[in-house]
């Protein structure tokens, strides 16, 4: 990173050099492993929650569609039953039905009876579906609660921006204590090698030499303007002349 942006050869790898870069496992790396495991657990919980929520939403939508259809059919049935009862009342009031009317009324009565059986069956199915809907709703609420708890615990333990204590430059060597992956390691090394060049912390949160590891581009770390200014001031000819006086 430093050589690319400065267009200078600043570091030379030698296997027998006295300056070493050491990888040391301690509580910081243990915490990183625990944080990664926590993130994996959260993703498992989120996946399970999303799956059950999708199933719940589909079931609720299906239930609502069937309920709307049932209510529509019940309304139609009640209107038709009301018309049938009105006809029967009129015919009874005048002393009875002629054979044709009796035949029509009997056909309508049979239709309404059959229709009621169908509606009763539909109503029973809907009633039996309610516990399943409620059970899935309870599962969704429980999984959401567990997911929120997991996220809160993770954020409390691992969510804060980390100071650059994953590595340390002590004047003779660099010790690396903590990194999550190659991008993380690249950024930590760039930061500590900056210290090895004599560069102090700068103010821009996106800078490699910022004291917190939070806003930098881990996948593609580059020097910020503040990094470049700090490098130029530290490695300028006037500084070197003053240093060697």
Automatic annotation (TrEMBL):
The keyword Nucleus does not apply. Gene3D superfamilies: Collagenase (Catalytic Domain) (3.40.390.10). The keyword Oxidoreductase does not apply. GO terms for molecular function: metalloendopeptidase activity; zinc ion binding. One of its GO terms (biological process) is proteolysis. This is Peptidase M10 metallopeptidase domain-containing protein. It comes from Candidatus Yanofskybacteria bacterium RIFCSPHIGHO2_02_FULL_39_10. Keywords: Coiled coil, Hydrolase, Metal-binding, Protease, Zinc. One of its GO terms (cellular component) is extracellular matrix. SUPFAM superfamilies: Metalloproteases ('zincins'), catalytic domain. Residues 74-122 form a coiled coil. Residues 157-230 form the Peptidase M10 metallopeptidase domain.
